[in-house]
């Protein structure tokens, strides 16, 4: 994954942000479409907030992706 120019070294770009931008949606538009606030979308993209399963599914559906594509498990996870 590519890193954001403003991200700390080693930080990965957000798959949600990348997909949202490819769909030419603002954070507010995505939030409206999935029943979440713009601030929630910001926090999810930054990795500061993990959405509920239902919200993750709505985001994935809106962006034409799977939950696994948008919310990959960390490589260091013991279950991966």
Automatic annotation (TrEMBL):
Keywords linked to the UniProt accession: DNA-binding
User: From the Swiss-Prot or TrEMBL record, what is one GO molecular function term?
Assistant: DNA binding
> Per UniProt, what is one Pfam family of this protein?
HTH_3
Q: Which SMART domains match?
A: HTH_XRE (SM00530)
Cross-referenced InterPro entries = Cro/C1-type_HTH, Lambda_DNA-bd_dom_sf
Domain HTH cro/C1-type residues, every copy: 16-70
Family matches, as PANTHER family: DNA-BIDING PHAGE PROTEIN, TRACRIPTIONAL REGULATORY PROTEIN-RELATED-RELATED
Q: What is this protein called?
A: Helix-turn-helix transcriptional regulator
Instruction: Specify the species.
Output: Dietzia timorensis
């Amino acid at each position: 994954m590519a890193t954001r120019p403003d991200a700390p070294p080693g930080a990965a770009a957000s798959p949600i942000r990348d997909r949202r931008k490819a769909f030419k949606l603002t954070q507010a538009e995505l939030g409206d479409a999935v029943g979440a606030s713009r601030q929630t979308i910001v926090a999810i993209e930054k990795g500061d907030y993990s959405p509920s399963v239902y919200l993750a599914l709505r985001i994935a559906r809106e962006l034409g992706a799977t939950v696994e594509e948008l919310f990959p498990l960390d490589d260091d996870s013991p279950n991966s």
